[in-house]
Write a structure and sequence with these properties.
The chain is an alpha/beta fold and 453 residues long. Helix content is 49%, strand content 15%. The strands form 4 sheets. The protein has a 5-stranded mixed β-sheet with strand order 1-2-4-3-5. It has a 5-stranded parallel β-sheet with strand order 7-6-11-12-13, sandwiched between helices. Bound molecules: NADPH dihydro-nicotinamide-adenine-dinucleotide phosphate (NDP).
Length: 453
């Protein structure tokens, strides 16, 4: 590409981002997510002018609708408490809105818009008919009793139920929202609607949940890495991996990596990380799962139990490894971390979390041409199996573990192939570009077909 052509593209991106920032002041995370995608989509639209018309990208970055509401609930001391909740219904061009609910004190409208926008492209990539949305609350489930969490979830659903439905908007889990919270929300939804439908996913197996949904995001992320490695004639077996987080995504990433013969040497939470050079094998992982999902304890207890090092308030990216899986939260892997990973010879990075790598970090991985699987492709396995849960609910059947896992492996391979199709550059595959463009094209085709709606 000539210097003049790249200067013109950059001017288009700057112009677009200037408008987006002006329309959405102060929403840093949302700006970051859109800019990352625009850097792939705008050049693609210049090469394919049919996608550059009708304000497609402008319309795609404006949510269809945002619902904001108060959630009042009673704590264990009998005090009334109030939180704020949102549901961002971003884009339903190719199917009902679909995306998780996040309960965490850091939740803001900007965070949910970034997640919702990413979700639109991600859901399109899964090959399933799902639009994109996201929701959540600044409620902090940590330190709350089960009854407090129940009262909060029930109260939230009293309002949210008016805006969702199996053909309208289908929420699921995310940070702070696991099976317990989904169960409380679904129970209240079912009562209010007086219908038993697949309106939430991530449900318990006894009431419409799908096998492998809990494992799907972590397993899918490892399957995506396997596909990327295969393009270089390589595999997972024998690799050393660094994983961040110890929640749903991280635990199942560790599990699948270990099953496929890798050694996982770290796990973390917001208090710090543990480094276990012997590897977090199956027995240690069972203990860790119990710690994090049943006892809701802290990762430092793992170091105390198994006699390894705990690094308070630090992240694991200085630990030498072949593969890295940031699987905790956004912007947890920055430029200096990318430099450390590259310095230690990392060959592949798969984003289990949403937008865990900041702009600088991502640019370094792309410049180094390592295998870099961006979130909207690498962690799409979770929402894909949520889509399969919807299908099973609609058909009133349950597929076996093997059936669902086969679907998941197949979907992750299709996502990978789509990324390759749109991400081929001279001598390597730019998965960031591939994922953004492949996700964009399907939605743009639908929006162009609908006209001005
Ligand atoms: P969980 O709530 O199960 O776990 C989150 C993990 O990240 C915990 O270990 C938590 O530690 C850690 N964490 C959260 N916030 C921070 C922070 N600010 N700094 C450091 N660590 C932090 O969430 P999930 O595993 O479900 O989600 C993790 C990521 O994956 C998120 O980005 C989510 O959007 C994404 N994702 C999840 C999917 C799913 O199916 N669950 C699907 C697709 C993406 P602590 O316990 O101390 O808070």
């Amino acid at each position: 590409m000539t210097n003049q052509a790249s200067a013109e593209i950059q001017a288009d991106i700057d112009h677009f981002m200037h408008g987006l920032r002006r329309r959405n002041p102060g929403e840093r995370e949302f700006h970051q997510a859109v800019e990352e995608s625009a850097q792939s989509i705008i050049p693609f639209c210049r090469e394919n002018p049919e996608y550059g018309k009708d304000q497609i990208l402008e319309r795609m970055t404006e949510p269809d609708r945002i619902v904001i509401f108060r959630v009042t609930w009673e704590d264990r001391h009998g005090n009334f408490r109030a939180n704020r909740a949102w549901r961002v219904q971003f884009n339903n061009s190719i199917g009902p809105y679909k995306g998780g609910m996040r309960f965490h004190p850091s939740v803001t409208l900007s965070v949910l818009k970034f997640l919702g926008f990413e979700q639109v492209l991600k859901n399109s990539l899964t090959t399933l008919p799902m639009g994109g949305g996201k929701g959540g609350s600044n409620f902090n489930p940590k330190g709350k009793t089960d009854r407090e969490v129940m009262r909060f979830c029930h109260s939230l659903m009293v309002e949210l139920s008016r805006h969702i439905g199996e053909d309208t908007d289908v929420p699921a889990g995310d940070i702070g929202v696991g099976e317990r919270e989904i169960s409380y929300m679904f129970g209240m939804y079912k009562r209010l609607a007086n219908r038993f439908t697949g309106t939430l996913t991530g449900k318990g197996l006894a009431f419409g949940g799908s096998l492998v949904r809990t494992e799907a995001t972590g397993y899918g992320s490892v399957y995506f890495m396997r596909e990327m490695l295969a393009t270089r004639g390589d595999g997972i077996k024998g690799k050393t991996a660094v994983v961040s987080g110890s929640g749903n995504v991280a635990l199942h990433t560790i599990e699948k990596l270990t099953q496929l013969g890798a050694k996982v040497v770290t796990a973390s939470d917001s208090g710090g990380f543990v480094h276990d050079p012997d590897g977090i094998g199956p027995e240690k992982l069972e203990w860790l799962k119990e710690l994090k999902t049943v006892r809701r304890g802290r990762i430092r207890e793992y170091a105390e139990k198994f006699g390894c090092d705990f690094y308070e308030r630090e992240r694991p990216w200085n630990v030498p490894c072949d593969l890295a899986f940031p699987s905790a939260t956004q912007n947890e892997l920055r430029g200096t971390d990318a430099k450390a990973l590259l310095g230690n010879g990392v060959v592949g990075v798969c984003e289990g979390a949403n937008m865990p790598t900041d702009h600088d970090g991502m640019q370094q991985f792309l410049d180094a041409r390592i295998l870099f699987g961006p979130a909207k492709a690498a962690n799409a396995g979770g929402v894909a199996v949520s889509g399969l849960e919807q299908s099973q609910n609609a058909l009133r059947i349950s597929w076996s573990r093997e059936q669902v896992n086969q679907h998941l492996e197949h979907i992750m391979k299709s996502i990978h192939d789509n990324c390759v199709q749109h991400g081929q550059e001279e001598g390597w595959i730019n998965y960031v570009r591939g994922a953004n463009v492949a996700g964009f094209v399907k939605i743009a085709d639908a929006m162009l077909a609908y006209g001005a709606v």
